[in-house]
Amino acid sequence: MNLTSNIQSYSINFHDDATIINANQLNIYYSGKLTVENFNLQVPKNKITALIGPSGCGKSSVIRSFNRMNDIIPGFSLEGKIIYKGKNIYSSREDPVRIRRQIGMVFQKPNPFPKSIYENVAFGARVNKYQGNLDELVESSLIQAALWDEVKDKLKESAYALSGGQQQRLCIARAIAVSPDILLMDEPASALDPVATLKIEELMWELKDKYTIVVVTHNMQQASRVSDYTAFMSLDREKIEDRIGVLVEFDETTKLFTNPKLKETEDYITGRFG
Fold first, then answer.
1. Model confidence over 143-185: pLDDT tens digits?
2. Do the domain assignments include residue 168?
3. How many domains does the chain have?
4. Which of 95, 97, 110, 247 could form a disulfide with 168 if both were Cys (CB 3.0 to 4.6 A apart)?
5. Calpha distance 168→268 (Å, rounded)
């Protein structure tokens, strides 16, 4: 089908019970300027979905719209729907704070709070008046984030004493501690060295049994290693000066990287542009 002018798109459809997020005809604006047009995507449950594409095509804008993080950006507006658990998260009846609790976010650069390792993980639970055993929750979250063995004897120390890779896993533990359904990861390893990056990638594979993961990455090798499905976004070449992002192709990762349906996808993954 035509997305815009001459841009063709290819996508796959899942049964409703296999998806957790359904983005329908999203148009994303900043201060009235269209930056992402007619974006449609079904995110499958308990899978890792990667968003790839050239810089400036709107990958981060899309992922931040999935839990309303864009709401805090002045001038942001959105048309269309994002359906999560049968409800449009942009409905006036929906609480953005609750949505962000259920759809967690891990950012490009580790951003631990200026608190102890323990308090970083416990923070969200305290805010939400968690009634269970906080020590057990902190330990469980750190175990899931593959960090417990490295920090169990220094939980009272500052989170800033950790390495960059450890800080990023701490941020993942912090997100896990409030029991989300989905983890959004925006370039989670781009600021890390190769060893720390490998640990994050291994962790993502372990976490998908319990959580749905959507990851933005500029690293196509990383996308091919960690994801089950990949969405390729690009700029509408007919409106290149306007820099409007569109979804070009969405498929199983192995298929998209070995046998893409569209030439624009093939050109990008083979390095002819981007």
1. 999 999 999 999 999 999 999 999 999 999 999 999 999 999 9
2. yes
3. 1
4. 110
5. 29
